[in-house]
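#struct-pred
JK: can someone run the complex with aspartic acid? inputs below
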Amino acid sequence: MARPAPCWRRDLLTALTVAGTAGGVLLGLALRHSADRPWGARAVMYVGFPGDVFLQMLKSLILPLIVSSIAAAVGSLDLRLSGRIGARAVAYYCATTVSAILLGVALCAAVRPGAGGPPDKAAAGGARNVTTVDTLLDLVRNMFPPNLVQACISLYQTELSPPKTLPGQDPPANSTLHDWDIGGVHVPGTNTLGLVVFAVVMGVAIARMGAEAAPLLAFFRSLSAAMMVITGWVIWISPFGVMFLIAAKVISMESLSVLAGQLGWYFMTVLVGLLVHGFVVLPLFYTIVTKKLPFRFLLNMAEAITTAFGTASSNATLPVSMRCLEERNGVDPRVSKFVMPIGATINMDGTALYEAVAALFIAQARGRQLSAGQYLAVSVTATMASIGAAGIPQAGLVTMVMVLDTVGLPAEDVTLIIAVDWLLDRFRTTINVVGDALGAGIVASLSGKELGVADPEGSAEADGKAAVVVGDD
Ligand code: ASP
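RT: done, structure tokens with the ligand placed:
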């Protein structure tokens, strides 16, 4: 179990991380303006090198951390209990994702960021190469990987190809994607969803087996503890790593003025939505459920928030956010180890809001009038797209395709928003992480009685009460 770090070290680390973020922006701007021609790819690579190494370190922790912490957390709970904690977590995920999407749709309808003609280089519409149904079926297929080793390095993806015609024969007129030949490939990546599902099932088996599975449980617990120790070391590199990741990005941006141009309204709509959701709606949920002010809790998550912004990856932030929750906010590790890895994989409020706004923006920019039914369809697929998006940089852009598909827009239209996506990705990842963290705080507070633990120390401090809840089972 994680030991709390001394006060001065925690504050120093927070100060360094915030300084690293600001330093990265300043360094990037200074380097950008120091040269009279655009920076070459090699020079950008050199600037980003320390950041890339930091990112690789974080990524290497993910796989053993996710599997061991979920298996250990589910395995050590009595099943009746993990059922209840799981139900609370799922209820929270659903409620917050729906509210994020409603907020996004409402903002988009009010601001109409895409109104007034298409943005410049409007991409020509072309053939879509996958249907919504295929994307959803791939999601389910990936939940149950046939080979766990393969799941560590690849994901399944359906691929459609135009029907073959005999020589001299014309392709069938009006053929739709549903008539295309269907096949599948394994693309490189980590099938996190599949591994999460396996770890949950393994945890349930361990919990059911009792004494017989004790060595296995001890193994997962000890592995998870070791991963947290390593994380503690890597965390001290984060101010430095985040600084270079951000600096390299600032240097390589095509044009700063693009942000202020036609995409400005879209950008601002998503940004305002994300900020309102992450720093008003979610903290309100937290305050209503836990009867505590959220400020201290959020401040204690500062390292996770800056790491999310710096890495644009919920998965890479996972070790940091779990550590912040357990050490600084005093959330019961049994809850954080259960809620966070699952949340990082499937609960992405920021991504959900962005998917809805982006699809509506593109529809507006293309001059499409959407029916009420289509608004609903966008909302539902945006939810699916956020669940299906992996916690890695710009994964949301990939699952955008299925949202566009529901309103009959071609996949190529994502090019309309690509210019600003790298920056929005950082903001939405931050909100994804904030959403998971507040969720863990809420679930821990609701489950305090069953867990039979003292009330989270950090949050009790927040309103000056030392509440102790003693479990009755
Ligand atoms: N980068 C996001 C995350 O890791 C996912 C997305 O692209 O929206 O949470």
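RT: quick notes.
The pocket of aspartic acid is lined by residues 312-314, 348, 351, 389, 391-396, 425, 428-429, 432 (CB under 6 Å).
The first helix runs from residue 7 to 34.
JK: thanks, will look after standup
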